[in-house]
Amino acid sequence: MRFDLVLVGFGNVGRRFVRLLDESRAQLARDHGIETRVVAIATRTRGHVFDPRGLNAAALADNVEAGSRVGRASGPTMTFLKNSLARCRTSARDGRLVVVETTTLAIGDGQPAIDHVKTALLAGAHVVTANKGPAAFAFGMLTTAAERARRRFLFESAVMDGVPVFNLRRTTLPALSVKGFDGVVNSTTNHILTAMEDGQSFDSALAAMQHDGIAEADPSLDVDGWDAAAKAAALANVLLGAKMTPHAVDREGITGVSAARLQAARTAGRRLKLVASGAGTGSGARVSVRLVELPESDLLAGLEGGENALVLHTDHLGDVAIVQRGSGLTMTAFGLLSDLVTISREWSPRRATRRSPPTVRRDRTLSGRGRR
Prior knowledge:
This protein is an alpha/beta fold.
């Protein structure tokens, strides 16, 4: 199957994703029968570009990193997205159109990522996203929209990069109930805490994560605990059936932690970790992100640097742990790639509605002048 891809957002993750597509092209074709073609890229500040014949996305990524624009087309991203979707009616009808959403988390309300996802689904596109906002703020609404459109809404990259947290529960643990979870799910804060244990300063440890492109564009989302809270809300919504947002999470960050506190805990045989926890189900779910002193024997206490882990508390299997021994842009981009493979495996035109999916009206302001 050949997928036409519309990219919304072209930051570090989006650019790594298009390069990973090129690197994996032969394997995707050989093992999964997948071909891809990027037909549109929308950015907030670097312009937009559309070409139904396909774009050289890797070259455009190089241009952006050199300080150039993606394309000459400008205007609101949503207008460009709607028009691009309208011009891809054939691939949308055939279930071959995928919107890849990689914009930055907006912790206030999850927008505009939620509207990007909803608009794409209504136009007959599948959606994969690395943005935590849609699952953290609007999981129920967007899941319903995807079911009605007979399309897929996937977000494996939203928590622990490409580690299959959500796919694990959905596809390999049938007839199992998740009663709760505990995890270290923010790489930046775990790196800072372990670096400070070793004598580094808070600022230098944060700067290293920003240099590697791992820290959020606004580092306060990481160090104030908002990124972990968004991930915890997403986990609770998907795994525990909660209907919450990050603002309902009992949240604590690491900005006030001192090296003396970290080193004192270490001397006492304990380690300080920023732990995301959830327990209960539905409206009774309780979720928090707190600094917790853990005994060194605890799995979460043993995480170093940018390592993450999640422990699921289940009814039939007891505690199931998932450990990620590292983090980075490639791992996040891989999550998007794996979601694309999931769509290829699980979606069939025979499952689609007999009616053509709803389409958006084309805005005449979009023209081919933005092509490169």
